[in-house]
Amino acid sequence: MLNYFFRRLGGAIPTLFIIIAGTFFMMRLAPGGPFARERVVPPEVEANLMKAYHLDEPLWQQFVRYLSGLVQGDFGPSFKYKDFTVADLIFGGFPVSLQLGGIAIVLALVIGITLGIWAALRQNSWVDYATMSVSMVGIAVPNFVIAPVLTLVLGLQLSLLPVGGWGKPGNYVLPIIALCLPQIAAIARLTRASMIEVLSSNFVRTARAKGLRESITITRHAIRAAILPVISYLGPAIANIITGSVVVEQIFSIPGIGRYFVQGSLNRDYTLVMGVTVFYGGLIILCNLIADLLYGILDPKVRYD
Amino acid sequence: MAVTNLTIDGAPEVQGRSLWADARNRFFRNKAAVTSLIVFTIIVVACFVAPFLGLRAPDYINWNLSSWSAPDLQTGYLLGTDGNSRDLFVRTLYGGQISLLVGFTATLVSLVIGVVWGASAGFLGGKVDGFMMRIVDILYSIPFIFFVIMLTVVFGRNIVLIYVAIGAVSWLDMARIVRGQTISIRRKEFIEAAEASGVSKWRIITRHIIPNTLGPVVVYVTLTVPNVILTESFISFLGMGTQEPGSSWGQLVSDAAVVMEIAPWAIIGTGAFLAITLLCLNFIGDGMRDAFDPKDR
Fold it and tell me: Which residue has the higher pLDDT, A40 or B57?
């Protein structure tokens, strides 16, 4: 088990390194420096600016500097928000994004798995068709269409909920719905498909044959096997929620990391964009690692050799 | 099973049904998929023949109308006007051209890379396979939308770049699927026969392996197109994709979202075009999957 964990970790480190290197060199090879768009400054001032941000050093030296900074949790200074470091912005926004994403993923799992199992147990009934049609809509309609429409109906027409801002419980509702709806849909479809397969498998037949009650057959035997595909979908689901949070935070003006990323991209704030990409890249790798381990614990067929 | 003619021996000659004919039959029995195919075709045709229908030009500004004016059937402004008093319906059709083109082009890019990569890895096997799929695994855990956005930050907002960038990052699933298929057929007799008669590896891959993996590939292509359109809209919505005057659907939705309090029809109209197209493509993709792989039903 521990061996397996370290092997997976050994695979994750090169991935992280590639993300960092790719991000870094892409940003530095870009035409036009980070100060290109501002008004023209005297050459001496520009030289000083370049020196202050170490942009006058050779590329590899800058890379080593950036890497050694990262190891110490230092993402460098923000080019646009002069009073903040990128780490300030990321760790300031992260609790907000984490709350939002965490609640969304938990809700998506609970509701999605429940709906999927329900639909599978009533296969080809109206429950099944209704769940699957709605989930198709959830998958197909992008969250940046769902979010404004929800705002329009619940926030503006019915005045039930606040349409932006952060801090009060009411502020959580719309962003979380917009964020977790596509994932509920995806998880429900996945669960349904695998549950249908599991219900016709040999071990379920054996459980039924030995006279186990249907409720116990399902809760103790079928569900455990049926949620395995959901566990392996956990990695992509978290990545999708992180991506979705970028646009949801933007729409509802939530002060999370995603919003900084968008602002940084529009402002060409190189270090901020790099920092967020690296941070979220690392987070996604970590989540994939956890999902892999969880899969190993739940699936008796996986061996750690 | 159609009996075509009787041979002299009296044994009926049976018309064979290919995998493709079978799949086609199953697909056309699927009502949701067929309806979606029809609706999708209408949308595609409407978007691409719009320039020849004598509609208003997408950049024509009607100075008599205010910005974001309401839909009016009499004057023919089906979705009202946009922020610059241009016909929003016409702009939605023209925006559709961009969104759909991105969808198809990027899917084509991902198709070519994914099929060649997957087939090579699966056929060559061993260390090469391990190495190639390791690369796919690594790329898989990269938050690629951040990379696409970063590309637009670095190289400026360029529509061709978006085509290529999205295509270049969405071939991973395709490569995995094709590899799996390839591994399952590479030990078959006809491949062995080709090897025995001295056909080169590259030629075996292109002539024998790839044509036999097409079923799942076609299914996956129909599911990649909506994903790509979604990604492009996502980037455009954030203001980093297409630029005026050529606005994609994502851009139009983004513009309309700002004014939805005063002009709710704008976001509902443009959003509906995007949503219906994506919904249709997903239903078509699902229908294809059921058609090619009936055991999954």
Answer: B57
Residues of A in contact with B147 (CB under 8 A): 22-23, 26, 277
Nearest-Cα distance to chain A for B254, in Å, is 8
Model confidence at A38: pLDDT above 60:
no
Reported as a pLDDT band with limits 50, 70 and 90, residue B39 is very high
Give the closest of B141, B145, B283 to A243, CB-based. B145
Tell me which of B146, B225, B230, B279 to substitute to probe the interface with A (most A C-beta atoms closer than 10 Å): B146
- Per-residue pLDDT for B59 more than 60? yes
Distances (CA, A) of B90 to A156, B46, B56: 28, 10, 7
Q: Output the pTM of the full model.
A: 0.81
Cα–Cα distance measured from residue B191 to residue B212, given in angstroms and rounded to the nearest whole number? 11
Q: Is B147 helix (H, G, I), strand (E, B) or coil?
A: helix
Alpha-carbon distance of A194 to A77, in angstroms, equals: 48
Phi–psi pair at B6, nearest 5 degrees: -100, 135
Q: Are A225 and A153 in contact (CB under 8 A)?
A: no
State ipTM: 0.78
User: Tokens 């509906």 map to which residue?
Assistant: B272
**B79 reaches A (C-beta below 8 A):** no
Option in A137, A266, A284 nearest B279 (CB): A137
Q: Average pLDDT of B193-210? A: 87
What pLDDT was estimated at residue A37? Answer: 55
By Cβ distance, the residue of B141, B152, B278 closest to A15 is B141
Q: Which residue has the tokens 């300031």?
A: A92
The beta-carbon neighbor of B238 closest among A137, A141, A247 is: A247
Interface with A, mutate which of B141, B254, B284 (most A CBs under 10 A): B141
Window A:55-114, CB contacts with B under 8 Å: none
The DSSP-derived string for chain A is -HHHHHHHHHHHHHHHHHHHHHHHHHHHTSSS-TTTTSPP--HHHHHHHHHHTTTTS-HHHHHHHHHHHHHTT---B-SSSTTSBHHHHHHHHHHHHHHHHHHHHHHHHHHHHHHHHHHHHTTTSHHHHHHHHHHHHHHHS-HHHHHHHHIIIIIIIS--S--S-SSSHHHHHHHHHHHHHHHHHHHHHHHHHHHHHHHTSHHHHHHHHTT--HHHIIIIIIHHHHTHHHHHHHHHHHHHHHHHHHHHHHHTT--SHHHHHHHHHHHT-HHHHHHHHHHHHHHHHHHHHHHHHHHHHH-TT----
Q: Tell whether A241 lies on the interface with B, counting CB pairs under 8 A.
A: no
Taking only the tens place, the pLDDT of each residue in A139-192 is 888 888 888 888 888 877 777 777 777 777 778 888 999 999 999 999 998 999
Residue B294 reports pLDDT greater than 70: no
Contact A192, A114 (CB under 8 A): no
